[in-house]
Design a protein that fits this description.
Largest sheet: 7 strands, mixed
Strand content: over 45%
Order of helices and strands: EEEEEEEEEEE
Oligomer: single chain
Structural class: mainly beta
C-alpha cells in the first residue's frame, strides 16, 4: 500500500510553533517533489510550501514566508513543515502530497499524485 501519513497537528496559542511530519510508505518519494496544502472550513485548499527532493529547492506561499520552513529526510522517507509565529488564520487541516512530475515543484492541487489524510492545526487567539 502506498500512502502518506501526516502527524504533529494540535492546538497551539498564537505566536507558538508546531512541526508537522509526513511519512511515506509503500515506495520511496526521494525523487519526487513534495508539497503541503491547507484547507480551512468552507475554504478552498491552498498551497503552503513545496520542496524538490532531488534538488533541495523550496518555494513558499507569501502568507507563510519567513515563518514556515519545509524540509526533508530522504533516508526516513519523510517531509516536515516547521511552523513558527503561528497566527489564528493558520488554522486549517494541513495535507501532505506528492507531485506527479518527479522533482518539479508543485503549487497546484491538479498536479498532485497522492494526498495524505490531513492533520488539524488549531491556533487560538
Amino acid at each position: 500500500q502506498v500512502q502518506l501519513v501526516e502527524s504533529g497537528g494540535g492546538l497551539v496559542q498564537a505566536g507558538g510553533s508546531l512541526r508537522l511530519s509526513c511519512a511515506a510508505s509503500g515506495r520511496t518519494f526521494s525523487s519526487y517533489a513534495m508539497v503541503w496544502f491547507r484547507q480551512a472550513p468552507g475554504n478552498q485548499r491552498d498551497f503552503v510550501a513545496t520542496i524538490n527532493w532531488g534538488g533541495g529547492s523550496t518555494y513558499y506561499a507569501d502568507s507563510v514566508k519567513g515563518r514556515f520552513t519545509i524540509s526533508r529526510d530522504n533516508a526516513k522517507n519523510t517531509v516536515y513543515l516547521q511552523m513558527n509565529s503561528l497566527k489564528p488564520e493558520d488554522t486549517a487541516v494541513y495535507y501532505c502530497a506528492a507531485g506527479k512530475y518527479g522533482n518539479i515543484l508543485v503549487t497546484a492541487p491538479g498536479h498532485v499524485e497522492l494526498w495524505g489524510q490531513g492533520t488539524l492545526v488549531t491556533v487560538s487567539s
